[in-house]
Every structure is written in structure tokens, then in C-alpha cells.
Design goal:
Elements lengths: L1 H19 L12 E5 L9 E3 L5 E6 L2 E6 L13 E5 L4 E12 L9 E10 L2 E8 L8 E6 L4 E2 L18 E8 L4 E6 L7 E4 L7 E6 L4 E12 L1
Antiparallel strand pairs: 1-15, 2-5, 3-4, 4-15, 5-14, 6-11, 6-15, 7-8, 7-14, 8-9, 9-10, 11-12, 12-13
Bound molecules: calcium ion.
The site of calcium ion has 7 residues, from strand 4.
């Protein structure tokens, strides 16, 4: 009897621990891991660039990275010009993380790298514009919904944490709860989001990486989430 009680209590304790202990650096440890990419096999198979001639896997600093080697051309609407989306998983709620480096001259304040999500087609997606300066359309969460991008994050222009100011690696994480529409974007500080928004316009889609009009590279990407 005593043993049974002990076993029952241990089981309940384990259940409680499993539900409560956050895994370091993860906002949504409840979301299943879908896939990780370190590009060490030299391949970016399954990634779909809008212009394949601009993307390649290269060796940099002893590791292989996925590089955006050329800036894109502005299309009919004002929106990021370069992206490569992971074509394998259409997700609703997700956590997408990794590291990125911007190649653009540090004298250019609006330099950027972008993370895409709920991508449905070339004119319907969200993106996080990680930049060296916070301004009207720099360092924002943007929505492209068939027209010029619109800033949707809650932080007023010039107040958000803009950390893409150098030629070093920066870690990022973008989290979205599709049910509530809560979106959070982190750079370097994985505890306090740099950008936040509430929006449920699109609801699902692909994740991706790229830039508004700059070049750079990405590595160690990880996607957790719920496939549609
Ligand atoms: Ca790598």
C-alpha cells in the first residue's frame, strides 16, 4: 500500500515537473521539434529561394552557413526583396530560432536581416525586420497582405531594441501563438522580446529567412511548431 502511494506520488511529481520546467532558451517547449538545420552536409535542399541564384551554402569560420550573397530587386509592392522559405512544413503556432549575420557596411543604420513566417505567397506573409536602427519601417514586425508592408508591432518607432549594428553573429527567435495571435521576436536577449505584436490575419504558412535589401548568412536554424 505504501509502495503504491509512493509510486503514485512520484508519477504525479514527474508529470508536474514535465509541465513546469522550461527548457532554457525556449518559449514554447510544448511545441514539437519539427526540424533543425546546420547546413554541414553542404545542402539547403527543401529551402525555396525567391531567386535561387542569390543563395548558396558556403564555409565561413569553420562551419557551413546558408548565405544570401546578392541583394534582391524591389518588386511592385514595398516589401522585403530576398527570401528563402522552408517548403516542408506549413505551420500555425511555432518557434523559429537560429543565428544570423549581416554583411552590409555598419555605416548604414537601416541594415537588416529578415525572418519570415506564415508565408503563403510572394505578397502574403509576415516578416521580422531585425535592423541596426529602430525607425518607422526599420526594426519592425511587418505584414505584407497583398499591398505595401505595414508595421504591426506595438513598440513605437525609434523605441525598440535594434541590435544588428555590427558584422558579428546574432541569435534570434520568433514565436507565434496562432490561436491568440501573439507574436514575439527576440535578438541576442532570449528572455525579453525586442518586438511584439498581436495579429491573426494570415494564421498559417511557411517560415523563411532573408533580407529587405541586404546580404548576410544564417546557420543553426531550428523549427518547433504545429503543422497544419
Ligand atoms: Ca553550420
Amino acid at each position: 500500500m505504501k509502495n503504491k502511494l509512493l509510486i503514485s506520488l512520484s508519477f504525479l511529481l514527474l508529470l508536474g515537473l514535465a509541465a513546469r520546467i522550461p527548457i532554457s532558451g525556449q518559449d514554447r517547449p510544448d511545441l514539437p521539434l519539427i526540424r533543425e538545420w546546420d547546413f554541414e552536409d553542404g545542402s539547403a535542399a527543401g529551402w525555396r529561394p525567391n531567386d535561387p541564384s542569390h543563395w548558396r551554402v558556403v564555409t565561413s569560420g569553420g562551419t557551413k552557413v546558408y548565405e544570401l550573397a546578392m541583394p534582391g530587386d524591389q518588386g511592385k509592392i514595398r516589401a522585403p526583396t530576398s527570401w528563402s522559405v522552408w517548403s516542408g512544413d506549413d505551420v500555425t503556432s511555432f518557434e523559429f530560432s537560429g543565428r544570423m549575420k549581416c554583411y552590409t557596411d555598419t555605416a548604414v543604420p537601416g541594415r537588416d536581416m529578415c525572418v519570415f513566417f506564415h508565408y503563403q505567397d510572394p505578397t502574403h506573409f509576415y516578416y521580422v525586420h531585425f535592423s541596426g536602427e529602430s525607425a518607422d519601417v526599420h526594426n519592425i514586425i511587418g505584414l505584407v497582405n497583398g499591398a505595401d508592408r505595414v508595421k504591426i508591432n506595438l513598440e513605437p518607432a525609434a523605441t525598440s531594441a535594434a541590435r544588428l549594428k555590427d558584422l558579428e553573429w546574432h541569435v534570434f527567435k520568433v514565436v507565434c501563438d496562432a490561436r491568440t495571435g501573439e507574436i514575439r521576436a527576440y535578438i541576442d536577449d532570449m528572455e525579453t522580446p525586442a518586438l511584439t505584436a498581436h495579429d491573426r490575419t494570415l494564421g498559417h504558412g511557411l517560415v523563411g529567412i532573408g533580407a529587405f535589401d541586404d546580404t548576410g548568412c544564417f546557420d543553426d536554424l531550428r523549427l518547433r511548431g504545429l503543422s497544419r
